Amino acid sequence: MRKSGPIQSVSISINFFLSVFYFFFFSFRVPSISYNSVRDMVKYSAYQSCDSMFLPLRVVYVLQRRDAETGDVLHNDRDMGQSLYEKITKRFEKSFERWKASQTRRRLETMLKSAFDRGVVPPLHKIMGIGLSSFIRGGHFNERSACQHSMMSTLRDFFAGGEGRGGPLCLIQDPLYEKSDQIIFGKMRLRVVRGPQCFLEMDYQSIVVLDSSSSGIPIQDIIVDIARPAMMIWDDAGAELGKKPQPDMTDPISPRLAKMLAEEYDRFDFCAGENCDSPGVAGLAFYIRRWRYAS
Prior knowledge:
By secondary structure, the protein is α/β, with parallel strands linked by helices. The protein is built from 11 helices and 13 strands. It has helices at 6-25, 38-43, 50-54, 84-100, 103-117, 143-160, 179-188, 197-201, 219-226, 237-241, 255-264, and strands at residues 26-28, 32-35, 57-60, 63-65, 126-130, 136-137, 140-141, 169-173, 191-192, 206-210, 231-235, 265-268, 284-289. The strands form 4 sheets. Strands 9-8-5-10-11-13-12 form a 7-stranded mixed β-sheet. Strands 1-4 form a two-stranded antiparallel ribbon. A two-stranded antiparallel sheet has the order 2-3. Helix 4 (84-100) crosses helix 6 (143-160). The chain starts with 5 loop residues before the first helix and ends in a 6-residue tail after the last strand.
């Protein structure tokens, strides 16, 4: 039998130490699917490896640090030993109050009331938020995510006839959600769902809120294939079509999506230019399906 030399023994010791270190301080996230859009694969030289050129879907495992007590992912050294939940909650409460006091919120509610007074939309039973991201991203508080989740709460209260009156089912889906996020969502009565559940629940009596700038799959094109929601709050297609898509965009505005929006929906601005006092929803537009296309 071949005996182990000193170098091999040291190597085994180092590997053992690293294994113990990773076990206590790091964790693998649930496997996720990394998606490269067709536009990315055929247009950008950045994607030149074989798996990127010919395989748009890949299974990805991300190694992340975690808090030993809460299990939350730690995004930078400042988070070590701190309560992420308390930190996020305080920041979110301030963001929520700013949203409630904003002209943008009042403008959105005025548009909703006008649409229902004119009878151009059916009764709505579901509100869905897809790809709105976590409250912590890149080691910093995500003001855009906080503002958009606050808007979800406003939509529910509007259709319920007032705050705390129940209202339509509110579903949100994003694989980036952490435990700290979900505790806050529970207090807001926003239900987190997994996998394709939001898509399966989508129909012509739904409102869809989407921020495709942070999505990892072509959500907008999927919606074109499976549903025609009564209302949508998502990227301003007119503005996006005039821009050159970024290399890392997985959900760009496609011609068939632009065609659906132009032919079947009326578009309204509720946060544009100098009138926008809520940067968290800047770049989004409000779409209402035209009555003649209703199912």
